[in-house]
Amino acid sequence: MTISELSFFNLALAYLMFIVPLAIMMWLRLPMISDTLIAMVRMTLQLLFVGFYLQVVFKINSILLTGLWLLVMIVIADLSIVRSCGLRLRAVAGGVFISLLVGTLMPLLFFVFFVFQNSAALGAQYVIPISGMILGNCLRADIVGMQTFYESLRRQEKAYIHALAQGAGLMEALLPFVRKAFHAALAPTVAAMATIGLVALPGMMTGVILAGGDPMTAIKYQIAIMIAIFTGTALTVLLAIFLTIRGNIGRDGLLKQEIFADQK
């Protein structure tokens, strides 16, 4: 069995399901209908553009184009994280970019060379989807981790100052906030791993099965990619915090308030 071609007409029929959530929003009088419609249009246009572009990238199968696309993905994720966390771009963008780069490339390359053990896996058809799955999860975890860390440090500044006054080093004083942020960022992924296969079939596994692959093969690949995702997420969150905090702590040991976008 091979996956059936989905025509644009059939895709258009799928939009009929969208009437249900829109009707619920109208009934509840939620002020988010226009935002939802805009998001749906953006999603459609963005995915269609990516689809056409990836057809070209897969056909050419150039390492340069694949690397360029991966960098574009990381830059967009970087900007999205900084904006969602309410932080200033120039204060944290560099550190977040490096954390995303390391957190995506390390598990990706390990997956390709040691798990997949096939040089063909360096092709665009493999690298882009796998890195996209890893990066997408890193993005969500980074938003939660960075937001939790900096907001906690901002709200509990007195506890942080007290720790410094008691003789704690910088990292020692920051550790409770790092621990809290790391836990908050990784908790959703841990919960997803604990219920995977029982509550929902994840994307990679579903894709392999729809393409006619053996379910056991799909399961083995999904286990490997979940480990890669969890590893990338852990690396990214920890690196993002450590790489951004150093430059935003003043000589007095206090967090520079100008790191927050709402500070003038």
UniProtKB/TrEMBL annotation:
InterPro entries: UPF0014_fam. Its main location: membrane. This is ABC transporter permease. Keywords: Membrane, Transmembrane, Transmembrane helix. Belongs to the UPF0014 family. It comes from the Bacteria. It is a multi-pass membrane protein. The chain crosses the membrane at residues 12-30, 37-54, 60-79, 91-116, 122-139, 159-178, 190-211, 223-245. It is found in: Membrane. PANTHER family: PROTEIN ALUMINUM SENSITIVE 3 (PTHR30028:SF0), UPF0014 INNER MEMBRANE PROTEIN YBBM-RELATED (PTHR30028). The keyword Membrane applies. GO terms for cellular component: plasma membrane.
